[in-house]
Amino acid sequence: MYTYTWYQWLTFFYLYCFFGWIFESAYVSLKQKRFVNRGFLRLPMLPLYGSGAVMMLWVSLPFQDSLILTYISGVIGATALEYVTGYVMERLFRVRYWDYSNQPFNLHGYICLSSSIAWGFLTIFMTHLIHKPIERAVLAMPLYWDLFFVFFVTVLFVYDSIVCTKEALAFGKSLEAMQKLRAELDNLQVQRALLKMNTEDRLQAAKEELLDQIEAKRIQAAALTGMSMEEFREKAGTKLGSIKEKPAAGISMIREKAGSAADSIRDLSNVSLEELKAKAGGKLDSLKDLTGIHLEALCGKSPEQLAEMLKERESRLAALRKERRRFRKERIHSNPTAVSPKYAREFEELKKYFEDEGRNATPQ
Fold it and tell me: What pLDDT digit, counting tens, does each position of 19-44 carry?
């Protein structure tokens, strides 16, 4: 049974935060073949390991005489802590600082089977081997030294946590702002392409569609009369004969028929044009719905003005990349497996930006 004072528990917490940082930084540095200052904080501390160690000591208290139960309690407790921590951090900061999505039997990328198995063995290793010498060292520490250590580290820890939390929140907001700017840029590109559409092509298409509809109306009218082309020619011949016999009557009849035909064509043309306008309006409305573009906002804007709008948004996007640049670079380099499912494109763009910057800064 552990019987420690509050400051001794804090001492254990800080020590295991530091030991966890040593383990993680060494492991990731070997994999990356460069030094990696692992973690969320700038201090050489990983709060997840400190919390995990204290939690392991607590959950294993009733099972110290059974390795199996100690193992099971460690698996359950550490896995639950890892899941909750990962979930909360992603919701707060919009970034998943560790990701098990590529591991088999993972849950939402926060936990996975292999990690949980390792937590169980680490709990046994922790409670039966690691903690005993550390416990003796802490209990042997003079009271004033222990209190001074706890006070000093707590001040640094709280300050660093506040600063890094604010910067992480700002980082998440920057990702969100980058996504919005990217959407604006994409929309502007589409809008500029739409404004560059050839007007003559659109008029030609409208003309062809109108002629097709007029021809269809003529065919429909012929079908309604039930007359074949031969019958039409015969009647036309009869009419021509009567016209020859009665010129005056023929001229009047021609004028009358011509007027009726002109009225029919005019009505037909008006109907067709109205239909075309309705169809064109419908197509524009559906285009707006699909792209989210408000074309009315671009009325009267020249290509030069559109280019200026694009340039202004690209400048804002570049400024967002450089804002709080040092923190972003540290966080991305310190967490090479970090991802941002919601802002994947923007996060990967920043990673590539800093990687290219690092390569360019490397002396040849």
Answer: 999 998 998 889 888 888 888 888 99
Q: How many other C-beta atoms are found inside a 10 Å radius of the C-beta of residue 223?
A: 9
Phi, psi of 96 (to 5 degrees): -95, 110
The CA-atom distances, in angstroms, between 358 and each of 167, 305, 328 are: 22, 36, 13
Name which of 293, 345, 303 is nearest 186 in CA terms: 293
What is this structure's pTM? 0.62
CB 109 within 8 A of CB 342: no
For residue 240, name the pLDDT band (cuts at 50, 70, 90). Answer: very low
Question: What confidence score (pLDDT) does residue 350 get?
Answer: 75
Give 112's strand partners. 106
Distance from the Cα of residue 114 to its chain's centroid: 29
Helix (H), strand (E) at residue 321 = helix 303-322
Extended beta strands in the chain, E state = 106-107, 111-112
Give the separation between CA 110 and CA 48, rounded to whole angstroms.
13
Closest CA to 276 of 268, 264, 288: 268
The residue to which tokens 């008029």 are assigned = 203
Whether residue 265 is predicted with pLDDT greater than 70 in this model: the reply is no
Report angle CA 312, 196, 318 to the nearest 5 degrees: 20
Q: Which value, in Å, is the radius of gyration of the alpha carbons in the chain?
A: 39
The model's pLDDT over 92-107, given as tens digits with 9 standing for 90+, comes to: 888 888 889 999 999 9
Place of tokens 């139960």: 69
C-alpha 362/C-alpha 338 separation (Å) is: 24
Distance, CA of 97 to CA of 81 (rounded, Å): 15
d(CA 180, CA 317): 10
φ and ψ at residue 28, rounded to 5 degrees: -70, -35
List the domain boundaries for the chain. 6-188+317-361, 198-292
Contact 29, 36 (CB under 8 A): yes
DSSP 119-171: HHHHHHHIIIIIHHHHHHHHHTS-HHHHHHHHHHHHHHHHHHHHHHHHHHHHH
Contact of 115 with 103, CB cutoff 8 Å:
yes
Q: Using DSSP, state whether 209 is helix, strand or coil.
A: helix
